[in-house]
Amino acid sequence: MKRLLLVALLPAVAGAQQKVLRGHSASPTVSVRLVAAVGAVRVVGWDRDSVELTGMIPKGARVAFASGAPVELPTGMKMYIEMPDDAQPLDGSLQLRVPKGARVWVKTGSAAIEVTGVTGGLDLNVVGGSITVHGSPRELRAESMDGNVVVDGSPEWMRAKTATGDITLQGGQDVGASTISGAIRASGGEVERVKLEATSGAISFASSLSRSAHVELETHSGPIDISLPVKSSLDIDVSTITGAIDNLWSKKRPAAGSEGRGMTLATSSGMEGARIQVRSFKGTVQLRPR
Q: Three-class SS of residue 182?
């Protein structure tokens, strides 16, 4: 069977940019690495056993491409866009199409990364841009220093991290998210194992819980807001060192913490089931009905 191989850098357009078109047949589970300091990167999973990179980059940029053995149907590919010295941080945009089951690693500077339709693995790293993932990849690692991270699916395994950006999540089987001053919002979907951590940022949790869910929420000074169904069979363990607990979910009143500092709240359904553990140094914790 004839294999597709496209390697092209098309003529410059508008005098300042040039088109990119690179493609190659690939394994359905190919591993693809892309390094590109452009303004936007879009990754699309499709029903073809091939990888295709298209887009616009500044005139004078260099495109490097390499694939591993076997040559006709490689299991690994690397792509690198080297920008000219006079390129602006947000110059250029790229679209990377990969087989749905591929593993994709993308690293860029200030780009907005958007991924749709990939069911394999994703490792996304950006400094000043945002990350948006549509769908439910098997594995997801997303890290942005200043931008927001949004995931609207339910990955089997997920780790999201920011410094100042917000993180918005739905469900997932094994979910971890951390930020310094950004906010973490988890709502919709169903979760199995969750750990959300913030320093000064706020945490808002309103996801559904599986029968054996284990949820950990932790902040230093940021507030924590938890929304739960009125009739929930679960164990809750909440404590804050110098903050306060506002329980609007049940009739049980919080108690003073050790040595009269802070507050604690513990409830038990008396049955084996979901568990929520909350820890804050001086942030306010609120439990409310949903």
A: coil
Dist. CA 53–CA 67, nearest whole Å: 13
Using alpha carbons, select from 184, 177, 190 the residue that is nearest to residue 204: 184
- Phi-psi map region of 262: left, alpha, beta (phi>0 left; psi -120 to 50 alpha): left
Tokens at 191, concatenated: 């979760």
For residues 215 and 273, the answer to whether their CB atoms sit within 8 Å is no
Asked if 35 contacts 44 with a C-beta cutoff of 8 angstroms, the reply is no
Q: What is the C-alpha to C-alpha distance for residues 26 and 75, in angstroms, rounded to an integer?
A: 6
For the chain, which ranges sit under pLDDT 50?
1-15
Q: What is the largest CA-CA distance in the chain?
A: 76
Which residue type, as a one-letter code, is found at position 138?
R
> What CA–CA distance (Å, rounded) separates 186 from 224?
12
d(CA 81, CA 54): 12
Question: What pLDDT score does 139 carry?
Answer: 97
How far is Cα of residue 146 from the mean position of the Cα atoms in its chain? 14
What is residue 9's predicted lDDT score, i.e. its pLDDT? 43
Q: What is the pLDDT of residue 5?
A: 41
What's the pLDDT score for residue 70?
62
Three-state DSSP at 259 gives helix
β-pairing, 50-58 vs 17-25, is antiparallel
pLDDT at position 273: 80
The total of other beta-carbon atoms located within 10 Å of residue 237's CB is 15
Interior/surface letters 204-217, b for 16+ CB within 10 angstroms, e for the rest: bbebbbeeebbbbb
Is the CB of residue 83 less than 8 Å from the CB of residue 61?
yes
Helix (H) or strand (E) run with residue 224 in it:
strand 224-228
